[in-house]
């Protein structure tokens, strides 16, 4: 756990003595940015919490009351947003503070009080090379159409990876990029491409409506912020089939699980057709998670990459998806594919994480135990 409490103490010395009622939310945002935090949590009965290197650290001020949380959160809401929150009991939005950062926000009610989580969105779009992403991702996106999926749990860096890929296409292609996001995170400037970013709830009523009108907007590259339901997934497959490059995200933990999720969201009598379509349009699956480093602050990226070779496309069509994982491990020098366990083992070998951490984050701990030469769990 991060123990950098000095900044918090210095920033809030006067507030600590006077009570939490004097804290301003801009102070908390500034502290989050200066501390390298990814998220700020505000809820009743505890001091504000910062997620630093994956773990929650409490700010050294008194516990917040219901009055405190409402006052802090309402400082940044418009009247329209306040009304929406009080009507729907939850609110998603994003905003920026000049000279500091952009934030993605979710406000909700907990035990009758207002609570919120604010996630910091870097103002600078991450550079592909700086992120040390594998070159196979660039090869995967060097196509004119198809479907590319970036998956993983919440907070696994999916948005960062996608932003880096979209930025490379924005620089090197000459087309029209449309993103559908809830809410908009990284803001992409117009470079070689024209970029339109649509925020669900602000620029369109919902994903379904936005997807329905998408093909009339002459896109070349489409980003669907989250493929949540059968209508959105079906539309993404159709758009990919009609000659567009589509990026989408899912909250799945492996490449094989992602393929199964796409297929199983459809009724049984449609699944054969979906398998066939998916086998043709799929251009790649990236599954990722962030692992806490064991011997120093920070986290490292665990990544699994599937490239649909002819053999894998055939397995998808023939409903033999359970064989895809073993196929991913064949000819990796040529295909660029990698499994999550292989990535985790590299981090262990490099001294970034210990064996216990590796085993706890593995999606196949029995296999990883054999690779590491330890007794499995």
TrEMBL record:
CDD domains: PilT. It comes from the Bacteria. The lineage of its organism: Bacteria, Pseudomonadati, Bdellovibrionota, Bacteriovoracia, Bacteriovoracales. PROSITE patterns: T2SP_E. GO terms for molecular function: ATP binding; ATP hydrolysis activity. The gene is pilT. This is Twitching mobility protein. Belongs to the GSP E family. Residues 215-229 form the Bacterial type II secretion system protein E domain. Pfam families: T2SSE.
């Amino acid at each position: 756990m991060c123990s950098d409490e000095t900044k918090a103490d210095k920033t809030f010395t006067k507030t600590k003595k006077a009570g939490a009622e004097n804290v301003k939310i801009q102070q908390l945002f500034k502290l989050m940015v200066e501390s390298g935090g990814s998220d700020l949590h505000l809820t009743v009965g505890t001091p504000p919490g910062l997620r630093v290197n994956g773990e929650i650290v409490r700010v050294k001020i008194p516990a917040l009351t219901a009055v405190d949380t409402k006052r802090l959160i309402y400082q940044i809401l418009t009247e329209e947003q306040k009304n929406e929150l009080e009507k729907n009991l939850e609110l998603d939005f994003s905003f920026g503070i000049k000279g500091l950062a952009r934030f993605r926000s979710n406000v909700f009610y907990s035990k009758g009080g207002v609570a919120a989580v604010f996630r910091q969105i870097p103002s600078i779009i991450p550079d592909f090379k700086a992120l040390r992403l594998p070159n196979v991702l660039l090869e995967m996106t060097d196509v004119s159409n198809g479907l590319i999926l970036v998956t993983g749990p919440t907070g696994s860096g999916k948005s960062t990876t996608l932003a880096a890929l979209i930025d490379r296409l924005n620089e090197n292609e000459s087309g029209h990029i449309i993103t559908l996001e809830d809410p908009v995170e990284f803001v992409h400037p117009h470079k070689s491409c024209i970029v339109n970013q649509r925020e669900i709830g602000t620029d369109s009523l919902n994903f379904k409506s936005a997807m329905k009108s998408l093909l009339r907007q002459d896109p070349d590259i489409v980003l669907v912020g989250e493929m949540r339901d059968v209508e959105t997934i079906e539309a993404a497959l159709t758009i990919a089939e009609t000659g567009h490059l589509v990026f989408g995200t899912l909250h799945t933990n492996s490449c094989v699980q992602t393929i199964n999720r796409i297929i199983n969201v459809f009724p049984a009598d449609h699944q054969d057709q979906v398998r066939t379509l998916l086998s043709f349009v799929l251009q790649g699956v990236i599954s990722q998670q962030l692992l806490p480093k064991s011997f120093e602050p920070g986290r490292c990226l665990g990544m699994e990459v599937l490239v649909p070779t002819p053999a894998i496309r055939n397995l998808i069509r023939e409903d033999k998806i359970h064989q895809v994982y073993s196929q991913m491990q064949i000819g990796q020098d040529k295909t660029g594919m990698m499994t999550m366990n292989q990535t985790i083992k590299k981090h262990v070998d490099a001294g970034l994480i210990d064996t216990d951490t590796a085993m706890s984050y593995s999606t196949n701990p029995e296999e990883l135990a054999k690779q590491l030469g330890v007794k499995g769990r």
